[in-house]
Amino acid sequence: MYNTYLKIKTISKTSFKKYGTILEHTKKKSGYEPLVKVKSNGWIWAALTIKKKYIDFIECHTNSRESFEPAFGTTIIVLAQSKTPHKPEAFLLDNPILLNERVWHNVLSLSETSQVKITENTDVKGRRIEFKKRFSSVLTFK
Questions:
Q1: Of 1, 27, 94, 98, which residue is most buried, by most CB within 10 angstroms?
Q2: pLDDT digits (tens, 9 = 90+) for 48-68
Q3: Where are the domains of the chain?
């Protein structure tokens, strides 16, 4: 198995729009502001600790949105649109995000260890695709 390197992009409203929502204040500068409302039979809150420096599979949830909220370390989230799972993009996960249903995703760590908080429906259903090659990200300096 060989590596394919992905350029790390920053999350912005423009670059992330096709994948979901950036969880940030939109109307207020401070205080409580509900950002997204989703009907559910219940929720799972989880901590995901990441040590892998590459991904060799990608998954999507067909019936649930899913949040990824950075806790510590440097996490890269790899995303692909529903019809093109073999064409992923890599983003520095430096903002909390909410993925749309059917967005392919996985994470890797640039730190020794990183951690994200995940929230998803309790009745989440999904699919997984194994890659024939590994995808990883590297930092480059000009």
A1: 98
A2: 999 999 999 999 999 999 999
A3: 3-24+41-137
